């Protein structure tokens, strides 16, 4: 490729920020160096491995305390958490739900599980998340508010909710987004799957939505193997979320009665045990992730054609996944970098294929998606495991 000098330099400096003695460096691997063995062993020794147990209760309390959200309900994965968040926010069959096109598939799938229609919105470079100002202009053009509901004038469908996603741990600009939600009678649900440990204006993400979803999948900041949680400051929604994710069973000593169609979305105790141990280490993980991001930033700044994604000025990010951005979208350059890095055993990858380009979502409504389409061609993620920050402290 012509003009590959800068890119070759980039590969060198990224490599210099990483340990030199490893053949392969994963994108994000879990770290178990606390009480994981002890807590999991306790589950096995006592027989409490399944859907109830003290670690489930403790994990929920610990999550609420850590995030500052009043209630946390542990569930089987982040997608299930999002599904229930949307359902409890009142999303119904045939509603539209605004989501970024630049997101992981779970956001769009969860909307579909409600029988609702994802409506794709653009992102902004500052946060990589929803652009509230562009969204505001768009809604002014295409919606009307009637009897306390927001309608899409083009499709005739109700727009019930918006789901900002805090991309790679960088919080979306929530204040203007909340104002839009208030003006247009749209519910706010945060997809905080990537942002445990991230703060918007001093407050933990997940506090701003009516309900929010976390994920503890194997590649997230902390993991329970697989798992998720619903966060909400609304007491009655929290009770309902617990009820409906645990088969809607009416508590009773021996009778099995259910008052509606519920879901078996419970997080097993053995996974919650892992979660309790992981949460104890989260502060340490965050320090190390920040150290790694810092050393990336320092060396990547020296290279001309790219920048390193840093937290927006109003936020403190968990730096879940580090990202490099080409100054201009350029798929040839992107792929050249991906080839070179991966060839050297430095696992790197582009972000997701945009949701509106997937066959099952291709016909759904969308606004102008120029920024998202650029991001697809200019962004790559580079290794971000906690362990990589340990030599950089
Ligand atoms: C990880 C993730 C989820 C949830 O994924 P699960 O694997 O179901 O836990 C949801 N949204 C985003 C943006 C994610 O990155």
Automatic annotation (TrEMBL):
CDD domains: AHBA_syn. The active site is at 220 (proton acceptor). GO terms for molecular function: pyridoxal phosphate binding; transaminase activity. It comes from the Bacteria. It holds the Pfam family DegT_DnrJ_EryC1. One of its GO terms (biological process) is polysaccharide biosynthetic process. InterPro entries: DegT/StrS_aminotransferase, LegC-like, PyrdxlP-dep_Trfase, PyrdxlP-dep_Trfase_major, PyrdxlP-dep_Trfase_small. This is Aminotransferase DegT. The lineage of its organism: Bacteria, Bacillati, Bacillota, Bacilli, Bacillales.
